[in-house]
Amino acid sequence: MPSLNREIVNFGGNVRFRPTHYYEPRTEAEVLDILRTHAHGQIRVAAALHSWSNLLVSDDAVVCLRHFRDITTRVDAAGDTWVTIGAGCRVKHALKALRPLGLTLPAIGLITEQFVAGAIATGTHGSGNHGLGHYVQEVRIAAYDGQTGEPGIFTISSGDELRAARCHLGCLGIILSVTLKARPEYHVGERNARYKQLDDVVARESQQPLQHFFLVPHQWEFVAQHRCIVPPVTGPLYRFDRWAYFAGWFVTMDVGLHLTFKLLAGVIRRPSVTRQFFRRVMPYLLIEEKTFVGRSDRVLTWEHELFRHMEIEMFVPRQHLAAAVDHIRAVLTVCDGSEELDPLARERLQRAGLLEPLLAVRGAFTHHYPICVRRVFCDDTLMSMSSGDGHDWYSFSFITLAQPRDGFRKMADYLARSMTQLFGARPHWGKYCPLDGETLRTLYPRWTEFDAVCRRYDPRGVFQNDFTRAALGRQ
Question: How far out from the chain centre does Cα 427 lie?
């Protein structure tokens, strides 16, 4: 039986709604019954709610698949292991289940709290790799027959249908399970370093392909976490050293630094103090010039879910990386209240019609969190942020721990509009997404193919909501 009038609140607390019906089915038969009941209504799937967008909103029915968490494996004739993961299995539980087999997932994002189907729905990614959905080879889905309109269970394993399912936005149906090829467990060496110039960071990608880096606000230099695959180190002294490093990272960074950011943004609230912290304290918080080695799922992930926050993430093509960094610095500096703006930046924004809107948000927000930058390989999908013609993308994550968030939204709205106009930047589907549907459609050359697949499995638009209808140009 459904729960009635249950409030749904996302992780960030910025999306709240009360659907008329809320379901937690345990069997595929129950899922099909839900589809029959709401065949002329609206159904959206709520996964782990670790999202900041309006993708999950439904006034009618919301389905949570937390009971669909089975994991099965099979070995093919070539000796490769294929893993089928229930849609409601959290990424961290899938990693844990594969570990005794000496295996892991082919891509790991920064956070492991998401349900697998939710991670694929929005294009979850790490750094120096494709998104997780790129590796999915088969999807089982509860949807509607395009000819009869009757609900059924379908298997998608090829063509544009598979490319659509790899980043599905919840629009094809209810994902029941996904199948992908596991990869052997590997170890990653991590070393922290500081740089003044972007070129020096990017130049190390060939030797450190898994690296990500941070643009430090107010200081405007870079901190890189250089990462590459290395042999495991098993000596007892090193194991203690590694434990001390990860424990220290958890205490000082995952917890301590975030508490400091909350203090700066939520209690002290003095921009001058925030600026001085980033300029005079942040440079001395990292252990540098020493490599620490650990399992990939330990090194590549953070405990980023410990503090409720809000985030916007923008993806730019490789050729615009340097220009995007310069633009971000100019925007955040003006939003911080500065009267100064580089003459070249002023001229560029004036020509684009973006200068006056920027001056209108001067002093609206002092950014208080390092901007994480990750390289993402081009995905073989229709709608993920890094889909396209084969070039790499770089994602920029902007996070706030402050409340209220009006100032952050003003800054984020301008960043989204201006970066899209100047660089063809794409906002992350699962993060705060302020762009209108017409603008979003210009960013995805294959959205018509995606919409066609959606109509094939959902002829009445049951799995659409206001956000997705706008993005796909539906009335």
Answer: 10
Q: CATH code at 65? A: 3.30.465.10
- Per the structure block, which two tokens stand in for 384? 């993920």
pLDDT in tens, the chain (475 residues): 576 678 999 988 899 999 999 999 999 999 999 999 999 999 999 988 888 999 989 999 999 999 999 999 999 999 999 999 999 999 999 999 999 999 999 999 988 999 999 999 999 999 999 999 999 999 999 999 988 999 999 999 999 999 999 999 999 999 999 999 999 999 999 999 999 999 999 999 999 999 999 999 999 999 999 999 999 987 777 777 777 878 887 888 889 999 999 999 999 999 999 999 999 998 778 777 788 899 999 999 988 778 899 999 999 999 999 999 999 999 999 999 998 898 989 999 999 999 999 999 999 999 999 999 999 999 999 999 999 988 999 999 999 999 999 999 999 999 999 999 999 999 999 999 999 999 999 999 999 999 999 999 999 999 999 999 999 988 6
Strand bridging mode 183-184 / 103-104: antiparallel
- 49 contacts: CB under 8 Å, gap ≥ 6: 8, 9, 10, 11, 56
Last residue of a domain, one of 127, 149, 184: 184
Q: Which amino acid is at 195?
A: Y
> What is the pTM for the complete model shown?
0.95
My answer on whether 149 and 231 are in the same domain is: no
